[in-house]
Amino acid sequence: MSSAAPFASAGILRRFRRSRRASAAVEFALVAPIFFALLFAIIETAIIFFASQVLETITQDSARLIETGQAQSGQVMINGVAACAAAPCTQSEFQTYVCTQIPALLFGTCPPGANGIFIDVENYPAFTSLTINNQIVAGTFNNNMQYKTGGPGDIVVVRLFYQWPLFVTGLGYNISNLTGNQRLLVATSVFKNEPY
User: Is 28 left (phi over 0), alpha (psi -120 to 50) or beta?
Assistant: First the structure.
């Protein structure tokens, strides 16, 4: 009886080595984490590019109100209703207009805050005096927003900022530029005001 036991266990080992039924599951278990990490990184990068493009479009559309003098003369309309109580539009009134252009599904809340859109409008007398500051200081967002729309013929810089939360930051893929796994999305429009 004792001599049959080694032969039986040897037969089981031979059958186990020849069996290929579970090899696909084992191979998938080895490859799956890397595959899904790469897949989610690609998806997150694509969403960030899409959000950046949406922010760029909103910046261009909103900047057009300043370029044509509509914001300075208080002629900004939201769904056919005047957005500005008087001329010129205030910073909060311009913020309200920008918020109506933003898809809530993509950016969530709009008013300035931890998860909101920040708007910076500055004017300059000439292109040679134009200065664009970096809003990231030691990994944190520097919120020193201004609202100076300028007059006819002035050079104006309109910038929109959004702190995008990142979810895929493991396996060496981390595109955050702010602390707390966030990426600052920035859209800029530089133009010369029309002679309105």
Answer: alpha
